[in-house]
Amino acid sequence: MARVIVDVMLKPEILDPQGRAIARALPRLGFSGVSAVRQGKRFEVELEGPADEAALGEVRKMAETLLANTVIEDYTVRVEG
Amino acid sequence: MARVIVDVMLKPEILDPQGRAIARALPRLGFSGVSAVRQGKRFEVELEGPADEAALGEVRKMAETLLANTVIEDYTVRVEG
Fold first, then answer.
1. How does the average pLDDT of chain B come out, rounded?
2. What's the complex ipTM?
């Protein structure tokens, strides 16, 4: 069993209202020194078998078709560890 | 300028309906070999200064009080790179 992480973030050119709201709330809450925040999604995918190239290819296809909206989001796939 | 990543995931003992829905949809969509999926949040925090211990302490406080609900969620803080 292996764990693969898929991170999905809005593309840099897409406005991120959630991240922006957090960044703007920080000074009000006493935090300084943060110039920007972006919020995205993290998926932990547990594989039944090893994280070999075939399995990672499947996870990439999964990210492409199901986990990310590639019109507005980028994703990265990596084996945890 | 440094980028710090905060990952927020539901604690292992908390049921994750979103992740479960994804895991159950996968076979229907032609994907096999996945035993479980958990969905969480990823925050990219851009610091104005370097990611030294003081700054990381601030980000941890931020995660604790604002980004994660520590009753049901765990978080990890790490410098990207």
1. 96
2. 0.93
